[in-house]
Amino acid sequence: MLVISVEVSDAVVAVRARTRSGESAGCTGCGQLSAWCHSRYVRSLADVTIAGRPLRIDLSVRRLYCENASCPKVTFAEQVPGLTARYQRRTPPLQRLVEDVGVVLAGRGGSRMLRILNIRLSRCTGPVPADAGAVPATGHAPGAGGG
Fold first, then answer.
1. Which phi and psi (to 5°) does residue 90 adopt?
2. Is the pLDDT of residue 135 over 90?
């Protein structure tokens, strides 16, 4: 992995990085190594805080062709061990921290502890940008009727 830039602001530490071209990556379907690049895209990952500031990693990764004709996957996204996990927008260390706090403190206590650690999560989609506003409460559950 190659770090391109690091930007520090009052709200967030943003790291731009990319994986190295030419290195082979294992197919997530069959495990065969491939370096045949289909395209690139940027993944935004939340990581544990640094000096009380949220850390966002904008990582450019390759989508590669699987060269195994019997593999059901035609293309796959490369993963960076210890940094990315399939379908996750959090790094493994942040995911473990969120899970551990959830198990130990649960519910509102866990939510308060994560806010103290400056780790903001939404109920459904995961990390919330540091500059996002609060969602107003409606007073009733969705689909519960009423007005």
1. -120, 150
2. no
